[in-house]
Structures are given as structure tokens and as C-alpha cells.
């Protein structure tokens, strides 16, 4: 069965079961197209508290932090904000060393504002002021 046929089947089933439901078709289609994502969200024990699911930006770092938290709590250590911040500082130092080791630097992105000649800026500002008045 093709995906469009499945969507039509779901659409008619939902319409039959819930005739007073006023959800746009595109919303239902988007949810059904991402059903695997939503199934994994529902399997999470905290899913009833989630309003909007946002994927983790750095999943490996998130997993490493989860492992660290599990190890610390298993050892009976009381997890405090100060302890978490200290671990974050250690991770930040490791990250800085990684950047230095691999010669990774922050590069300035030059755009339209970066290419403007600063010497003629007052003159151009005066011209713009005359045009606007």
C-alpha cells in the first residue's frame, strides 16, 4: 500500500471516528509522516510532561552527561547544581583543548555590513538622511 493510500485510509478512519474534530488535514498528515519520531517520544517515561519535542543538539554529549549522572547517583553522591556546573566546566576545558589540538578557531562571517568602507560611512549616512527627509 502506498503512503498516499495509507494517508487517505487514516483520514477517513479519523473522520468516521471523530466527526466533530476540527484539525486541518495538513496537521494530521505531518504527524503521520513523522510517526516513528512520535512513537519514540511516547516511549519516554517523561513524555506526558513534554509540550513540544525538541531534538538534542549534541546527542553524544547528552549521552555522556546521562552516563555521568547515572554513575554519580549510583555511587550515592548527592547531585547538586554546583556539581553539575563543575562537570560542565571540565567538559568546557576538554572542548577548548580539543579545539586547540585540532586547530579549530572561530571565524568571523563577513557579510554586507562587513564589506562597507568605514571611511565613507559618515558621508553615506548624511546622504541617506537627506533622502529620508
UniProtKB/TrEMBL annotation:
Protein name: HTH CENPB-type domain-containing protein
SMART domains: CENPB (SM00674)
GO molecular function: DNA binding
One matching Pfam family: HTH_Tnp_Tc5
Organism annotation: Rhizophagus irregularis (strain DAOM 181602 / DAOM 197198 / MUCL 43194)
Domain HTH CENPB-type: 55-108
Presence of keyword Cell membrane: no
Domain of life: Eukaryota
Coiled-coil annotated residue ranges, if any: none
SUPFAM superfamilies for this protein: Homeodomain-like
GO cellular component terms, semicolon-separated: nucleus
Database matches in InterPro entries: CenT-Element_Derived, Homeodomain-like_sf, HTH_CenpB_DNA-bd_dom
Keywords for the protein's UniProt record, in alphabetical order: DNA-binding
